[in-house]
Automatic annotation (TrEMBL):
GO molecular function terms attached to this record: DNA-binding transcription factor activity
Lineage of producing organism: Bacteria, Pseudomonadati, Pseudomonadota, Gammaproteobacteria, Enterobacterales
PANTHER family per record: BIFUNCTIONAL UDP-N-ACETYLGLUCOSAMINE 2-EPIMERASE_N-ACETYLMANNOSAMINE KINASE (PTHR18964:SF149), ROK (REPRESSOR, ORF, KINASE) FAMILY (PTHR18964)
Name recorded for this polypeptide: Transcriptional regulator
Similarity comment: family membership: Belongs to the ROK (NagC/XylR) family.
Matching SUPFAM superfamilies: Actin-like ATPase domain, Winged helix' DNA-binding domain
Domain HTH marR-type: 2-56
Length: 377
């Protein structure tokens, strides 16, 4: 078991692209000799590797320490689509193997289906079960603070389902459940664009809208696991009815579902956002109005997040070809017009494309995050 200093070293290395012993010692305010002893044990345990960077011509470069890709393996399952995607990742977040199966809404049957799919996935990479650290599961909905129970998922039709216990019974693995947007934020924090950010917000733009926040390097789950639920913030009081029972929520204005509804209401000849954008490009006023309304609502919500939390960056995770053109332009304009003038342009906005497999990788990242950041004492 790693001690608290070694856990800190892992966290530092995850947030960097490699660090020298000297840099780690300075950061942790420990002597270089003490750091060397701690690292020796971690090298021996196969957790770290050393690499010598290219010389820049100014003396001998320091040896950098990095996490070994093969130091740990994690599984991730996504329950966010019609199929369950199951992936195997290494410590660098690379997807090594994947499979998919039909989503069975009966929790016990689902746990059995996932358990049966694991051995063939490991066999593809000649891995043994004891090399696996854990299984993360991502779903649309609320998860309890122990990441063990799906408290509520409208998409799955579940309420208080102890999925972690069912999966643990079938697989013997440590199981971590997580809401889909939070899982994606974790994935970007430990493997992606937000690696170096201690404070950031990730927005997921899909059939529904989600968000998740990292504060001081930690995922903010809130008192009841519901932090970041911007989908149901009221943007237009008395507006369209929302599936949550309220009216005028952000979801009813800016989600892909809302955009498709608006296209149908206006009888526009398009099936998706890419076609709506193409129609707007040709000057169709209804298409332009729909994209404006959605972009304005989403931009306003992001501006409020920036105003309240002052994050280092915002990451917008969107479907392929569904956040380009006018929608993106209006979102960016709405952000700038609704934050205080003094902070306009100071929060970088980056965007990433999500595919169905991204959710499963995000789920696996949750298991990795638990291993790295929430290591037990
Ligand atoms: Zn709502």
């Amino acid at each position: 078991m790693l001690n608290v200093h070694q856990q800190t070293i892992l966290r530092l290395l995850i947030a960097s692209h490699g660090m020298s012993r000297t840099a780690i010692a300075e950061k942790m305010k420990l002597s270089k000799a003490a750091i060397s002893t701690l690292i020796k044990e971690m090298l021996h345990a196969g957790l770290l590797e050393e690499s010598i960077p290219e010389s820049n011509g100014q003396g001998r470069p320091s040896v950098l320490l990095k996490m070994r890709a093969d130091s740990a393996y994690f599984l991730g399952a996504s329950l966010t689509g019609e199929d369950v995607h199951l992936v195997l990742i290494d410590m660098h977040g690379r997807v090594l193997a994947s499979t998919k199966m039909a989503l069975n809404l009966d929790p016990a049957a689902l746990a059995h289906t996932i358990a049966v799919a694991i051995p063939p996935l490991l066999a593809q990479k000649q891995l043994s079960p004891d090399q696996l650290i854990g299984l993360g599961v991502t779903l649309s909905g609320f998860v309890d603070e122990n990441q063990a129970v799906c408290v509520q998922s409208a998409l799955l039709g579940w309420r208080d389902v102890p999925l972690a216990a069912l999966l643990h019974e079938q697989t013997g693995l440590e199981i971590s459940l997580e809401n889909d947007a939070k899982a994606l934020a974790v994935s970007e924090k430990i493997f992606g664009v937000a690696k170096k950010a201690r404070n950031f917000t990730l927005i997921t733009h899909g059939d529904g809208i989600g968000s998740a926040h990292f504060f001081q390097g930690q995922l903010h789950r809130g008192a009841h696991g519901g932090a970041g639920e911007i989908a149901h913030c009221t943007i237009e009081p008395g507006g369209r009815p929302c599936r949550c029972g309220k009216r005028g929520c952000l979801d009813t204005l800016a989600s892909l579902t809302a955009l498709r509804e608006s296209m149908r209401d206006k009888a526009l000849p398009c099936r998706d956002v890419a076609e709506l954008e193409a129609l707007a490009m040709k000057g169709n006023s209804a298409a332009i109005a729909i994209l404006h309304q959605a972009g304005h609502a989403l931009g306003l919500s992001i501006a409020n997040i920036i105003q309240m939390n002052d994050p280092e960056m915002i990451v917008i995770a969107h479907q392929p070809n569904a956040f380009d053109g006018l929608l993106k332009t209006v979102v960016m304009q709405a952000i700038d017009s609704h934050v205080l003038p003094a902070i306009i342009g100071k929060t970088p906005i980056s965007s990433i494309v999500i595919h169905q497999e991204s959710w499963a990788r995000a789920a696996a990242s949750v298991a990795a995050y638990r291993f790295i950041v929430q290591l037990p004492d």
